[in-house]
């Protein structure tokens, strides 16, 4: 607490009340409300200067300096709105972020080869993992509800892995000879609670921001909220302002189609819920991806 008070004194802020929300602290002062978070030393301190230079200032005003122990930002009161609208507004802002910060970077063949090998190795690992798990479950005389749910849907898991295996080969052929790739500033920590609508739209929690391929923001958002929103509309909304290149969309679909590891440890009720959620996500992903391939076949 002493370090917090020392940081506040540096900016002549006199705290009246503290409210702890996760790692953040909302502080009432004579000059209004502020948010304090422990400083992430891994974040590039120049990223906000770069965003400003690209006319993207949709983040809370930062009061603290780069060498402080805590980051101090203005507190933004949120305007209440339906979650579906909030999600679309956030995706609009993300597409603007990507538009404003796009540049083309020379890449070495080894960069794409590393992505290819990582995904290929993951596919092989998942095949082995689910084969072993299915074999173990089938030896049981009586299956638990979670085991029965998994084994009943094991063919869907294998189908997703087969799709990924074919698509990663196609992606690698498509990208192998390309020496320039599109890069953007990635927020890299997207979820619905990291967007605030106030007098303008704002993204908060930039502590994982970095540069990278644009699809990673959408990928992480999907993995966080797969079952919460209709992502076919969200993706269309995003691509209205920032259309994905063929190789980008293909890589996105591979990443979201890779099944998560399903573990059968813990209380049966909790395990059964987790298995059902992960299986539901596989079916929902298939429903999202399939129309893109159906339209290709028709054309």
Task: Give the key terms.
single chain; 299 residues; alpha+beta; Phosphorylase Kinase, domain 1; Aminoglycoside 3'-phosphotransferase, Chain: A, domain 2; 2 domains; four-stranded antiparallel sheet; three-stranded antiparallel sheet; 10 helices
Secondary-structure blueprint of this entry?
Blueprint: H1 2-10, E1 15-21, E2 24-29, E3 32-38, H2 47-53, E4 70-74, H3 83-101, E5 103-106, H4 109-138, H5 145-152, H6 154-175, E6 180-186, E7 195-197, E8 201-203, E9 210-212, H7 215-225, H8 231-241, H9 246-257, H10 268-298
Antiparallel strand pairs: 1-2, 2-3, 3-4, 5-6, 6-9, 7-8
Task: Tell me briefly what this model is.
The N and C termini lie far apart (64 Å). Strand 7 (195-197) and strand 8 (201-203) form a beta hairpin. This protein has 299 residues and is α+β, with helices and mostly antiparallel strands.
Q: Can you walk through the features of this model?
A:
- This protein has 299 residues and is of the alpha+beta class.
- It folds into two domains: 2-75, Phosphorylase Kinase, domain 1, CATH 3.30.200.20; 99-298, Aminoglycoside 3'-phosphotransferase, Chain: A, domain 2 (Alpha-Beta Complex).
- Helices cover 54% and strands 15% of the residues.
- It has ten helices and nine strands.
- The strands form three sheets. Strands 1-2-3-4 form a four-stranded antiparallel beta sheet, with helices on one face.
- A hairpin with a 2-residue loop joins strand 2 (24-29) and strand 3 (32-38).
- Helix 3 (83-101) runs parallel beside helix 8, helix 4 runs antiparallel to helix 6 (154-175) and helix 7 (215-225) packs parallel to helix 9.
- The radius of gyration is 22 Å and the shape is globular.
- The N and C termini lie far apart (64 Å).
- The mean pLDDT is 91.
């Amino acid at each position: 607490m002493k370090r917090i008070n020392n940081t506040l004194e540096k900016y002549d802020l006199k705290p009246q009340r503290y409210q702890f929300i996760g790692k953040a602290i909302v502080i009432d002062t004579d000059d209004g409300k502020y948010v304090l978070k422990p400083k992430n030393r891994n974040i590039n301190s120049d990223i906000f200067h770069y965003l400003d230079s690209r006319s993207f200032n949709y983040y809370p005003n930062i009061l603290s300096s780069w060498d402080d122990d805590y980051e101090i930002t203005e507190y933004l009161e949120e305007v209440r709105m339906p979650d579906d609208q909030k999600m679309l507004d956030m995706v609009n802002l993300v597409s603007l972020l990507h538009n404003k910060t796009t540049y083309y970077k020379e890449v070495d063949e080894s960069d794409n080869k590393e992505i290819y090998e990582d995904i290929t190795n993951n596919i092989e690992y998942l095949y082995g993992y689910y084969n072993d798990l299915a074999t173990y479950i089938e030896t049981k005389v009586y299956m638990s509800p979670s085991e029965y749910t998994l084994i009943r849907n094991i063919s869907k898991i294998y189908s997703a892995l087969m799709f990924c295996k074919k698509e990663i080969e196609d992606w690698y052929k498509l990208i192998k000879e390309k020496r320039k790739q599109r890069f953007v500033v990635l927020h890299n920590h997207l979820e619905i609670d990291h967007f605030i609508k106030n007098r303008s739209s704002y993204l908060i929690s930039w502590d994982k921001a970095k540069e990278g391929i644009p699809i990673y923001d959408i990928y992480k958002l999907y993995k966080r909220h797969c079952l919460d929103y209709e992502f076919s509309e969200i993706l269309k909304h995003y691509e209205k302002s920032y259309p994905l290149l063929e190789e980008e969309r293909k890589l996105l679909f591979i990443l979201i189609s890779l099944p998560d590891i399903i573990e059968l440890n813990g209380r049966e009720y909790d395990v059964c819920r987790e298995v059902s959620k992960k299986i539901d996500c596989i079916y929902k992903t298939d429903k999202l991806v399939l129309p893109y391939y159906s339209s290709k076949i028709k054309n």
